[in-house]
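Task 17 of the worksheet. Students: predict the tertiary structure of the chain below and write it out as structure tokens. Keep your answer in the requested format; marks are given for formatting as well as content.
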Amino acid sequence: MTNTVVFLLHIGRTKSAQVTSYVVTLFLYNVKMVESKKKTRGEVTRDQFLSLALSSISEHGVSGISISGLATGSGMTRPTFYSHFGDIDGLIAELWLERGEEWVLLMAAADENFDYRAELVTSLTEVFLHCHRNIHLKEIVAPLLQRTLERGFPGPAGYSVALWRMANRIGVVATARVWPAVVAAMALDDYLDDLQTSVFDLEPSTEGPLPEIEIPEVPGLSREIVEAVLTIVQSSGVEGLSMLRLGRVLRVTSGYLYPRIHNLAGVVGSCYQIVQDAAVKQNLALWSKLRLSPEGFARFIVGSVGSTRLHWRNFRSEVMIAAAHNPVLAASVTLSMEAFHRSLTRRTAALLFPKELVSQVALLVHTLLFGFTALSNAGIEVRDLAHVGVIRALLRRVAKRYVGFGKASVQVRPSLR
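Model answer:
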């Protein structure tokens, strides 16, 4: 390096002092730029762990990663991992701080090339869904989420439309591995593009929470067992359920449970079907009274994230996360989602929608409520959004696009099929 500097100075002096100054400045600037791009060994190691964590979460889920697996996969040692992150929670927190803002913008911004299968999308969505039961994660997720959304989507109309887009995408991403039919709900993206200029009713919803879901008695699985499973899973995930813990919650012995429960994944799947069936029946009865008006659907969005339904919604989220990595659970959830979709399709068929849209509207009931629950858990005040204004703007856009309805059809982008 010294010889090079001398050579440049020598060349410069053969011309003028002004040229000498220019050459020296240019050289030092280039050296500084090269040195600033070079990462330390510790930074490289940290990046390797974060990159491997991203791919591992996408493949195995947050609950499926381990320090041993990450150390082996990266070629590092466990002490090296501990020195950077402390534990798995620390790793996930650092991953969110590193890539969280990018994920929020990907999920909320209009983008015709959005890919629900992208590694960053699937991994960070699962991390996001975990924050409701991980206070250490929520304390960094909530402020970054709010800050990024407010900065990127100013104004009540733009903010509301962005969160509708984000809620729908969260529901699609979380469900698609278990029930691929849900991908058709991505058609909502086309209707939301530039919709903020058409949202005029900016008043938030003032509706209260929906009634609690009444869990029925079913043969072979008592209401008490169903409620206990919901209590454990919604707070600790499917992986937190065990015979011993279930026995403690129910105040019974293992001897009482084993003749009745042979497979925990199967029991979780059965509980999911029981509660979802009950929720659909109660919701359809309530919708009949509300006539599925814009105000009625807004009430369901706001009411579903209230305290009376949060127990069920968090259980539903945890089961969907686990089912993506558990074939036994996935089979039960798939059957339940298909029954849910049939029931909602029959009801929405009575609305003045083109036939091609009826199925997608039924899907949106799932994706939007699922996504808004997750956003509410992360600190977003879902009640304050302009839901009625967004719904009315969507209906106007549907009517304009389907004048006379004719033979038009909604196309899902090729990249999403």
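Marker's comment: The radius of gyration is 26 Å. Residues 1-36, 404-417 have pLDDT under 50 and may be disordered.
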